[in-house]
Amino acid sequence: MVAHALRSLVALFLLGTGVAMAQAADAQLAQDDRIAELERTVKVLAEELERTRADVTVPEEEEMVSRYGLGPAASKVYGLTRGISIGGYAEGFYQNVFHDANGAKDNTDMLRAVLYTGYKFNEQLVFNMETEFEHGTTSATKTSGGGSVSVEFATLDYFFRPWANARAGLLLVPMGFINQIHEPPSYLGVNRPDVERRLIPTTWRENGTGLFGEFGELAAYQLYVTNGLNAEGYDAAGIRDARQLGNRALAEDLAFTGRLDFTPLPGLLLGASTFLGNAGQDQSFTVTGVPTPVEMPSAFTAVWDVHAQYEWQGLHLRGLFTMVHVDDAGELTAVLRPTAQGGINEIGATEVVASGMLGGYVEIAYDVLQWMFPDSERTLSPFFRFEYLDTQFNVPSGFSADKAQELQIYTAGLQFTPIPNVVLKADFRNKVAASGSSPDEFNLGIGLAF
């Protein structure tokens, strides 16, 4: 009896132990399943977060390099896999005018604050835009007029092959060095060169479409058709006020722009560009005392430049020469001058539109910090630039040139970059006109790009 009872107890114990072990095993399996499900959920959430970040938020910072004719900050969107890109640049200055000559006063200006925004839809379609805020405010002050807010460019690019891609929208006209790559760390001095502000009127943009591409690292080209200039804006100082800037631009006359750049050796750039098109825009004006409307002449305009740059270690050399040719300059001047046929605008009687304008500059800079701190990204570059320009180089028969428009400009300065994206500038500028000297300037500036 006792043995039977003991066997029963042992059997009951073993049965209970088995049940407990089975229950523990089931609980462990359930816990393992919960952990696996939790891990799967976390993985799904992480993947979804990464996809969302890539699609609709600012990506990880990429190395800033110039691409497709644009500045490094403006090129950020091209380095993405997909999604939004945000960048920009800013610059401001203080100017001391020696002796407050010719009525000019010392001044300071928050010249530009710019935001680049872009969106890469996929490997083929990219939208890129620059929005610029100038002079701190759009409101007028006691000392100056208001600033402006403008779209500097807004393009949709379609990438087909490295050597054949399409671009449409508000385009930066691909001429010179500064018009497309105008971020402050990319040029010397507080002010952009006058040649590239008046003869190649930066920032020059027009509505249009065209092709661009690269042939490896050897050559790059851009070919665009845009609306033409508006000759009503031509004056003695050049063609700057004839830019239409994408604002309900007249397109009766179209223009062609082409650019070709070669890099035959590392650090050496050789290139040329041209802009060709009529600027009359099929306009006519009613003038007091003239019985029939006055027709704006076609004013065929050709702008071309040749440019070269060489950079080796700390040495920087850059040169550019440009010319502007305007057909019908005499007839155009007669239409625009208030003393001829009644006139149509407010330019002065001496405002002769030249049939030929020219200018050029050379500059040199050298980074002296490379010898003391060869592994540092800091640079300290003394520089010198000489410019010559004459927007009255060749005036039509019967008119006299305005000698105040023939200028020699000497700029010497110092440029310090604590990091490649930030620059501190100081320079002295001496401007001499054929009709007499202009006041000298001392300028201090800051600039950045991101």
Secondary structure layout:
Blueprint: H1 2-56, E1 83-97, E2 107-120, E3 125-134, E4 148-161, E5 164-172, H2 195-198, E6 205-215, E7 219-227, E8 254-265, E9 268-277, E10 284-285, E11 294-295, E12 301-312, E13 315-326, H3 329-336, E14 356-366, H4 369-372, E15 379-394, E16 406-419, E17 422-433, E18 436-437, E19 441-449
Beta percentage is 35-45%
Number of H/I helices? 4
Q: Which segments are poorly predicted (pLDDT under 50) over 5 or more consecutive residues?
A: 339-349
Strand tally, please?
19
Strand order of the largest sheet: 1-2-3-4-5-6-7-8-9-12-13-14-15-16-17-19
Q: State the order of secondary-structure elements, H for helix, E for strand.
A: HEEEEEHEEEEEEEEHEHEEEEE
Q: Name the average pLDDT.
A: 89
Structural class: alpha+beta
A few lines on this structure:
The protein has 450 residues and is an alpha+beta fold. The protein has helices spanning 2-56, 195-198, 329-336, 369-372, and strands spanning 83-97, 107-120, 125-134, 148-161, 164-172, 205-215, 219-227, 254-265, 268-277, 284-285, 294-295, 301-312, 315-326, 356-366, 379-394, 406-419, 422-433, 436-437, 441-449. Strands 1-2-3-4-5-6-7-8-9-12-13-14-15-16-17-19 form a 16-stranded antiparallel β-barrel. It has a two-stranded antiparallel sheet with strand order 10-11.
